[in-house]
Every structure is written in structure tokens, then in C-alpha cells.
Amino acid sequence: MSLLRALREHWAAPAGAACFGCRHFVNEWRAIEAAMPGLASLSSGHASVRADDGLCLKHAIYLNGRRACAEREPASAPPPECDAPG
Amino acid sequence: MSVESRADLRAVPTGWRELWTREDWWAIWLGLGIVLASLILFESGASLRWLAVLPAKWSSISQLGADLAANALRYIGQFAFWLVAFAIALTTLGFKAREFAPAFVFLYLAALVVFCVGQWDQASYYNLEPPLIALIAGLVISNLIGLPRWLDAGFRVEFYIKTGIVLLGATVPFTLVLLAGPIAILQASIVSIVTFLVIYFAGVKMGLDRRLAATLGAGGAVCGVSGAIAIAGAVGAKREDAPIAITAVILWAIVMIFVLPLASRALALPTGVAGAWIGTSEFADAAGYAAATAYGALAGKVEGIAGTSDQATLAFTLMKVVGRDVWIGIWAFVLAIVATTRWDQRPAGGGPDAGEIWRRFPKFVIGFVLASILVTAATAKLSFADFNKIANPGLIGPIKDLRTWAFIFCFLSIGLTTRFAELATAGRKPLGAFTIGVAVNVALGFALSAYVFASYWANLGK
Question: What is the percent of chain B with per-residue pLDDT over 70, rounded to a whole number?
């Protein structure tokens, strides 16, 4: 396998069933820094180590967006109500 | 409005966008840009020195005033350079220029004041080390006075420290990275594995969820807040786990910024040994650089402290960045496998893949290594005497001074963004488990740095 192909696969968008694209999954840096007080003091929502992690609002867990879930709902559905910090 | 209800915050995979949506890459672009500009100017007989201005040593206010007035145009030019460079990066990352600009004006002026205090000829006598002044001033302002939240757009701790680390690479001979790397990795691995296991098993013994215990363990053992969030994501921790670990890391990291240099001074440790100890036992890059820089500055000023200021930052960098930070992807990959195969199942399925190791790799380290290779190659033809006579003042010196600015921006930003009242409540058990790990880490780190590998660290780079 060529290096370019290997890199392409590593960076490729995950399959359709992944948490990406689910209306319950949020991984944008502002949302993550708002949900994790102190994150920007000694790290950042823009850090590479965060990879594709985000918050699952349905199950209240912080996980890799490349994981899959049977309860996935398309992002085109209305956003969920939530009592999280804003 | 809650962040969860904002449609514009929906998730998208990073992919190739990482090259312009992660601050690690922006630190590389900016840091390597400065290094390349410096190299081009050096090769053409010029230098970046004009831009890399710092206050001179002074003993009276009039002397300081005269120096600042004489170099006013250089300070304006340097300010404009930083403002434009950081603004391009931060606006691309999603910050608003109208919020960043006033914040950076404040940050630059505060940094200038910190430098001026640090250059006072009595500063060492009164322990007025610039990193510690910057940190304390930031903490006082943010916790006792308070600044508008939107100013945080200019106080980006990680971006400044990563840019500084890339610039630091230009001042480290690549041969030293190759020679010292294995020792740093060996020492860091011993301490990281022991610290992680101590925190993890102490946490589980106290009844903590395994994922929280692992998140705390990575925060103490690998790379502080960054380690904690990486492992929290890899193992699928509860939403509240990462904030708990962040609180524990921040509290101990700030304590250690003061304790480790003070203890090193009391023990009169050589700067290289102290740097290695700080690199092993501090919990975050930014906090560790503050401690290592503060201690390194005592070299030659306080009787009994052997070594150079560079040895402190070099040893710290090798230990923390090369020895600990770069392994976060492997920690995440292994713990993701353990979490999905051994621990209770989460609603989300799907297994971890080895691509995690690369995706979580702290990319700024690539910039550090490239900067080291570039400058080492460019100066390889120079004799030792010519290197000191020509390359040091014309090439290395300006990069080193610009790096110092980036570090002071970072140290001020740590204080300005650390609001203790807003941190999550860690709870007795998580804090207790983390504290046990801190005790073991500090003792083991000291034993390895000051006894087992002492001669190595004391003579680093000689």
C-alpha cells in the first residue's frame, strides 16, 4: 500500500453509521470548550490530540466520532433540547 | 442559548481540514515560517534581529525608558508582525478578529511589562522571574479583577506554547535530539507507566468508574489536560469525567509551577537535572515550560546552581515532548481496545483502529523536529568558533528571542484563562487518586533525574 493511500485512508471520513452526522453528536471546538471548563487553560478545543472526539448528547458521553451507534439519527432532524451549559 | 441547540455546531470529520483547522498545524506554519525567514536572511548576510527586540538590562527607570524609546519602532514592528500572524491563524480557526485584536494589544503590553521587570538588574534578588510574574499577574487579573470573556480570543495558551516549541526546535541540534531522545523516552516511559497505573488502580480501589480512572491516569502520566481529553474520547468516558480530570490537572500543574523550581533551588540541582525532573513531573507543556524557564533563568545568577538556562528548557523538552507527549496516540489506541473489549459496553459501538495513533499525534512535534533539522543542516558547515561568532547572534539568537515572546504570551494566558471558580468540582475521590499519583510521580521523577540519570542530564548538550 502506498504511503499516500495509507494516509488517505487514515484521514478519510468515517462510514455512514458513525457518530458523525448524528444530530446528537457535537464536536465543534466552541461546544467542547464550553462543556469542559478549564480546557482552554492548559490545552485547547483545537488540539490535534482531540482527533474526531465529541459529545454524544443522547448518552452523555465524550467519544470518538468514528464510533458507530444503533441509535444514530440523521443531523437533518431538529436539534435536541438539552440542559447543558451554554 | 445552549451550545447543544446550535445547528452550526454539528459535527464534521476533520480529515485533511486538520491542516488548517488545528492549532498544531498553524504552530508549524508560523514557527517554520519564522525559521525559514531567519535562514534566508542569514544566508543573504542579513538577520531577523531587528524584529526580535527585547528590553535590555536596566538599573534605573530612566535607563529603561531610554532603551524603550530608542527601540520604539522595532517594538511597533514586532507587535504588528505578531498581531497579523496570530490573527490569520486564529481567524481561520474560528475566532473573531475584532475580539482577538484588542485582547492581543492587552497581552502584548502585559508581556512587555513582564519583560521589563525581568530585565531589572535586581530581579533575581527578589525572585522576579518573568514566567512566574506572568503567571501570577494573569491569575490575579482573571480571578480577582476579572476580564470580559470575549478577550479569551487572544489568550490561546496552547497555540502560543506550540509555536514556541517549534521555534525551540531551531535552537536544538538535531544530533542532540537523536542522542538524548532514547534516554528521555526510557525515563519518561518508566514514570508514565508507573504514574498511570498508580492513579488508575487507586481510583478503581476508591470506587471510581474505570473510564474516569483512566482519564485521570492519562492526565497525570502522559500530557496533562491534553492527555485527559484524548483518553476520555478514546474510552468513551462520561461527559463529566474529562472536566473532573481537567480540574485535577490544572490545580496540581499550577502548584508544581512553583514547587518544582523552589525544590530544585533548595537542592541546588543543576539546570539540566531540574529540567528533566520538571519534564517528568509537571503535568502540562505550558506549565512545565514556565517552571523550567524560571529555574533556568537562575543559572549564573544564584550561587550553587550549575548549568545553563538552555539546559533546563532542553532537558524539559526532551523529557516532556519527546518522552511523553508523542506517545499519546498509542496510549489512546491501547486504552480504546481495553475499553471496548474488557470494560462495560457503551451504547456506541465500533472498534478502535490504528489510525488513532496518527490522528491523535501532537503534530506540532513535527514542526519541532523539522526546525531542528533545518537549522542543524544549515549550520553544519560552520566550525564551532564560527557557529558561536556568526550563527548564534545572527540566526539562533533572534529565533530564541521570538520564542521567548511566544512563551511569555503563553504564561500570561495560562493565568488569564484559569478561573478557579469556574472549574468543575473534582470531588474527593478523583482528587485523592490523582494526588497519590502526583506523590509517586514526583518522587520517582526526582530519583531518576537526580540519581539514576543525573550525570547525563547535568551534562546535556556539552
Answer: 96
